[in-house]
Amino acid sequence: MHAVYREARATLLLAIPIAIGQVSQLLMGVTDSVMIGRTGTVPLAASAFGVGIFNIFFMIGVGLLTPVAIFASRARGAGRHDEAGEYLRHGLLLAVVSGILEIGVIVLLGFHLEWFGQTPEVLAALNPFFVLIGFSLVPVLAYLALRQFAESMGRPWVPVLIILGGVLLNVVLNWILIYGHLGAPRLGLTGAGISTLISRSLGSAVLFGWLRLDPAMRSAWPRRWLAPFSRERLRRMLHVGLPASGSLLFEGGAFSAATIMMGWLGAAALAAHQIALSCAVMTFMVPLGVSMAVGMRTSAAVGAGEHARLRPIWIGGSLMGAAFALAFTFVFLVYGRAIASCFIDDPQVISTAAVLLIVAAVFQIFDGNQVINSAALRGITDVKVPAVITFVAYWVIALPLAYVLGIRGSFGPAGIWIGLAAGLAAASIMLGIRFLRLTREGAPARG
Question: What is the DSSP-derived secondary structure letter of residue 227?
Fold first, then answer.
């Protein structure tokens, strides 16, 4: 147990700034929801649908960039800081190329949003907000690569301050552009899209500038940005990144599919879903921060050849994630209705959101555990089997159950969320078993 305590303490010290950074990044979306919600139910429902589709593409990019943290941490563990910088350079290439390709798809989808069967008033309110947040993909993915590099090199706090500055800027720009203050036109939902694009672009530029000037990064900062890219590094990154993208796409796609199903139940259900999901995702950022620290530390342990530390790192992270999840479960159970009323004045939306937050209170525990298990497996570069596990959990278990209970059955919005909770529980159990199997004594080392 001493080893678990020692590793848990080290993981917590790394996880705190990462979790704060994750919460800060999500604050941009939550403040958007709060400020858009004050303009009416339909704009809030439209933003929920647009962000739900956007998140599919964002999750693909997040998966592709996961190798930046894994291989930079591994290089640092092996004492090769220059190699960590090369993985940053190649990661930024992946961020820009994948982001541009995804923007092209988003622009095309913007002309065919009727395919998703949403109500006419939601579709009428959606563009150009949907396209504007689509254009923010390149800067937000570049920021993600830069932030993971900084965290892997032991410099996690400055990215937190930068993203907090971005959130503050986004609030100010929302106040000006959504509501039409300081002589600006009242743009509503479109103003929120412009604010998000500007805030994300500036945040990425500022983080790049800080890393470039930070003396502590000098040994790892790439010296030849335009040097030929290594096919071997890109191959290694895609070997991990593509299955990781698949895992995140299966999970994020399931939540996006749930958003689409909510739209079939009407604008009020969709708005309530957005409120509950914003709250659930916000609290999820804490175990997600723990999971990212676990992934980096397991990867560094592999790089240093210290395989005996893998299980203690995982156990300590899992206990922390469970503790945070239980705390948030209590908050949702006791204060769900009060939280929902902060977003909107519509009584029907508030009542539905309060019920969804009760379901969210239950799946917090499973959600936190599955993301930590998944990160620990990525840290030892086990990504293909977890991708299959997530597909089964979300697309074989969660979504069919959500459809049966919520659309065909009588549970309505709560039924859709019960289906999601079942998928999260299945993923948590199967991924945990997978990690235990791969790290048992006598198992072949991975990575």
Answer: S
Residues 354 and 340 sit within 8 Å (Cβ to Cβ): yes
Mean pLDDT of the 98-116 span: 88
Which tokens in the block code for residue 410? 């009588």
- Whether the ω angle into residue 128 lies within 30 degrees of 0, i.e. cis, is yes
Q: 179 with 130: CB under 8 angstroms? A: no
207: three-class secondary structure by DSSP: helix
> Taking the C-alpha atoms of 383, 386, 391 and 396 in order, what is their torsion angle to the nearest 10 degrees?
170
- Residue for token digits 């945070």? 324
DSSP string, 313-341: HHHHHHHHHHHHHHHHHHHHHHHHHHHHH
Phi, psi of 267 (to 5 degrees): -65, -35
Q: Tokens standing for 295?
A: 């992934």
d(CA 389, CA 404): 22
Query: Residue 337, Cα to own-chain centre: how many angstroms?
Result: 25
Cα gap 269→261, rounded to integer Å? 10
- Report which secondary-structure segment, H or E, holds 109: helix 81-109
Residue 442 confidence (pLDDT) above 50: no
At 258-284, the pLDDT tens digits run 988 988 998 889 888 888 888 888 788
How do the domains of the chain map onto residue ranges?
A: 2-438
**Residue 441: which pLDDT band, with cuts at 50, 70 and 90?**
low
Tokens of 276: 């509950």
Using DSSP's 3-state secondary structure scheme, residue 119 falls into: coil
Scored b (16 or more CB within 10 A) or e, 189-210 reads bbbbbbbbbbbbbbbbebbeeb
Instruction: Copy the structure tokens of residue 320.
Output: 């922390």
Distance CA 83, CA 244 (A): 22
User: Distance between alpha carbon 430 and the CA centroid of its chain, in Å?
Assistant: 21
Residues ≥6 apart with Cβ < 8 Å to 169: 195, 198, 199, 202
**271 contacts 349 by C-beta, under 8 angstroms:** yes
Q: What is the pTM of this model?
A: 0.77
For the CA atoms of 377, 380, 381, 387, what is the dihedral angle to 10 degrees? -10
| Cα–Cα distance, 139 to 64 (Å, whole number) | 15
